[in-house]
């Protein structure tokens, strides 16, 4: 690793955010299970796209990695339980990806979600972080939902994306448009539960975010797409389906039909 960044002495700007010429790339990760790494198990625990990306950045720079994302988190959790620790980390780069758990619940409140997300993004940007967000794809196509549930979920994701568009416009956040990539619906990019990216899916996300950061002048070799972990056995899949996935799906689909 080099002790100094490889870009020039002037900050790299994107809207109101910037990557300043600092010795350490401090990377804070806020959000839910996708950013926590669920779907990409290793002997050390969940890895995921953010960890893969941080390791790639570390090939050329010193990296301080702070993963605060927690499975099941909604935006209120991010604001209440993750934001202060993220700011204390003084991130140069911060990913803020949350919302699927919000839209899958009967308590979905677009106005409150907007207020919480804009607050989190605004505080991160105000403290000098380059914020990374997304535009979500159509999750109903991945889940294979019946038509009864497809329409309400699509409507909510459209609203979710409009709010993320506002974050992008206000704070110059880097934005990964998942829906613009036809490959997002490839079965191999998803874990067997269809809720989380597979290892390949996480690696592809890391690579695409890496391309965005390269475009901002933060230069490093892009993450590899070569998978290194074995797929879960049928027994492990069956146990997870009974213990974790089926109850979660039942609760979320009940909430969706209640909120139609």
From TrEMBL:
InterPro entries the UniProt entry points to: GDSL_Rv0518-like, SGNH_hydro, SGNH_hydro_sf
GO MF assignments: hydrolase activity
Domain SGNH hydrolase-type esterase stretches: 29-204
Listed Pfam families: Lipase_GDSL_2
SUPFAM superfamilies hit by this protein: SGNH hydrolase
Keywords noted in UniProt: Hydrolase
Protein name: SGNH/GDSL hydrolase family protein
């Amino acid at each position: 690793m080099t002790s100094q960044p490889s870009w020039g002495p002037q900050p790299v700007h994107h809207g109101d955010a910037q990557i300043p010429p600092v010795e350490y790339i401090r990377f804070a990760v806020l959000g839910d299970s996708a950013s926590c790494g669920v779907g990409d198990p290793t002997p050390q625990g969940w890895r995921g796209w953010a960890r893969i990306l941080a390791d790639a950045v570390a090939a050329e720079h010193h990296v301080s990695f702070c993963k605060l994302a927690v499975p099941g988190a909604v935006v209120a959790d991010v604001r209440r339980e993750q934001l202060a620790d993220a700011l204390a980390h003084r991130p140069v780069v911060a990913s803020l990806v949350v919302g699927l758990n919000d839209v899958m619940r009967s308590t979905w409140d677009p106005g409150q979600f907007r207020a919480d997300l804009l607050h989190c993004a605004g505080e991160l940007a105000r403290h000098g972080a380059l914020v990374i967000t997304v535009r979500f794809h159509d999750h109903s196509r991945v889940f294979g939902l019946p038509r009864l549930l497809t329409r309400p979920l699509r409507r909510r994701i459209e609203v979710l994306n409009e709010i993320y568009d506002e974050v992008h416009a206000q704070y110059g956040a880097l934005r990964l448009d998942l829906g613009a990539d036809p490959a997002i619906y490839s079965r191999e990019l998803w874990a067997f539960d269809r809720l989380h990216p597979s290892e390949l899916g996480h690696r592809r996300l890391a690579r695409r975010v890496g391309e965005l950061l390269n475009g901002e002048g933060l230069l490093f070799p892009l993450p590899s797409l070569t998978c290194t972990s074995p797929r879960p056995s049928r027994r492990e899949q069956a146990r997870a389906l009974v213990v974790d996935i089926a109850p979660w799906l039942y609760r979320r689909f009940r909430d969706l039909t209640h909120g139609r």
